[in-house]
Amino acid sequence: MKQYIGTKLIEAEPAKRRECYKGPNMLSAEEAARDGYRVRYSDGYVSWSPKEVFEAAYLPVTVNAHLRTGAPSISQKMVDDFIMETWTTTLGDKTTVVRAMLRNGFEIVESSACVSAENYDKDLGAQICMKHIKDKVWMLLGFLLQTAVHGVK
Length: 153
Description:
By secondary structure, the chain is an alpha+beta fold. 31% of the residues lie in helices and 27% in strands.
């Protein structure tokens, strides 16, 4: 079989498996009480997904309060929450490098340098790098959301 990459925009809410199971009651008590999500797809199909599988596959969309629309969008909270960890280092005597690890394991590296070593400020360099990193994350999440909403026609 071939492999495929896909994304989709869905609606979901936390639910026990028993709340979504439609067949004859053949689930064990443990399986019926399993945490997960009730998922509704754009075509109306409803299913249940185990919590760990769902949370590994889907990113919550938070409303961007600065927009005047209810359409799906990226918020600053989504950008900030997608950056899991950062490391900052100095190269030479006037260059700051920041490496950011994203939730999906992808890494973004940015650098900032000044003209004169006497003007070097590691904290200012890190702020500049983080702005560039967040701009890239914003663009990448926008691309992901665009794909989820409109597919890969």
